[in-house]
Amino acid sequence: MTSIVALTGGSGFVGNCVARRLIEAGTKVRLLVREPAKLELPTGRVEIVQGDLADHDALARLVSNAKSVIHIAGAIAAPNRQDFERVNVAGTANIAASAVSAGVARFVHLSSMAAREPQISDYAASKRAGESALAGVAGAMSWTVLRPPAVYGPGDKATLPLIAQLARRRAILPGAADNRTSLIHVDDLAAAITMLASTATPNGTVHELDDGKAGGYSWQELVDTAAHCGNRQIKLIHLPKSMMLAAGHAGSLVAKIIGKPIMLNAGKVRELYHPDWVARHDLLSQATDWRPAITFEDGFTATLNWYRRHHWLPDPSAKARTQNKSDHRETTV
Question: What is the residue-averaged pLDDT of the chain?
Fold first, then answer.
């Protein structure tokens, strides 16, 4: 009988990539989805369970007879701390408890590098608490946690603004000159997640991971790489932290008033200006056969090209071709 992998977050950027990877490998995939109509996966290749992380009946159906669970779903924006905790803490505890009750052998939880600094934002605090919730209910079930840094790749809306700035002559970015961060391409992250779902080890551990660039990147290094890829010069301009904090506090206030999440809030600004989001160890590569395969240079080029092909960003070459055709018509009339 084909093993079943239960997956949450399959309609999101990372979850979609993981689901496609599992499907291509011939794995039977069962997805927890709130709105099936928004799911962008091959029809008939997955089993759908409609519900959310608070629906215990749906969670029981999701994990029934599953060999492993991959938990990716989570809130990245919320109007208040309670809403973050409802999804990222209680939701993680709910699905972990359901997996234990169903006798699931393996549980892989996608957390965030932000969990390393729980004091910095409500989001970060909820991700750390979610990790603790999993550890508290897992019992004898094998589990592991991944803390990725910023994840990018074709189809990602969250990092689109960053790629857009790196495609311009002047890159206007948050952070400071001495800030450093690790990155990882979504395909490398998906490979790590699916690999961990098919093995019982490592167990009971938390792993930070990246694209293999020791020491991560400064903003200037990212700009220099983008400039090299585009064979042009890019001037880096840092947004003042004071200005961004003012905007972030305003966003937090608006979110509380309207009861809906605002991406630019005070906590997000503190995350953006934190000086060190560099993966601190290489334990995953030491404990497994997983290795990152995509450099930022290659990943940035492929992602930028995807955005341009799909008209998420303007394509200068297409504009130049149109202009050349126009010039040719004028000279032949």
Answer: 93
